[in-house]
Specification:
This protein has 147 residues and is α/β, with parallel strands linked by helices. Helices cover 46% and strands 16% of the residues. Helix 1 packs across helix 5, helix 2 packs across helix 3 and helix 4 packs parallel to helix 5. The protein is globular, with a radius of gyration of 14 Å. The chain starts with a strand and ends with a helix. The model has no long low-confidence stretch (mean pLDDT 97).
């Protein structure tokens, strides 16, 4: 598995924590930044990650900003992306099992680094269930293809 990861200034600390986690898990990653505490624009980081996931260059993406909201909105504008904003372990598992999410968004001002690590571990390890959920995800793909 190969993961793209990025944050804006509001997610810098948790992004660094999650990079350490990916290294501990021996998961290959591409870090898209940012490297500053000054204000930057979250679409400049979310969209490149989403494009890499959508074109298959990486398998999944992780995005962190202050709340996770801006990153998830921007990522979901890219065709083929199913970015889930998650702040608990139950949702991390459910969004993989039921929605086959390919990008995870979180907010550093909402959760701490320990919970973020737990969420990422669960999200990376949980497979898509398929079955009745496959039909639902396919409806999204059909809609995207028609626009």
């Amino acid at each position: 598995m190969k993961v793209a990861i990025a944050s804006d200034h509001g997610g810098l600390n948790i992004r660094k924590e999650l990079i350490s986690l990916l290294e501990e898990m021996n998961i290959e990653y591409v870090d898209f930044g940012c490297e500053c505490n000054t204000s930057v624009d979250y679409p400049d980081y979310a969209i490149p990650v989403a494009e890499r996931v959508a074109n298959g260059e990486v398998d999944r993406g992780i995005l962190i900003c202050g709340t996770g909201i801006g990153m998830s909105i921007a990522a979901n504008k890219v065709k083929g992306i199913r970015c889930a904003l998650v702040h608990d372990t139950f949702s991390a598992k459910a969004t993989r099992e039921h929605n086959n999410s390919n990008i995870l968004a979180m907010g550093e001002r909402v959760i701490g680094p320990g919970l973020a690590r737990d969420i990422v571990k669960i999200w990376l390890a949980t497979p898509f269930e398929g079955g009745r959920h496959e039909n639902r995800v396919n409806k999204i793909k059909v809609y995207e293809a028609s626009n």
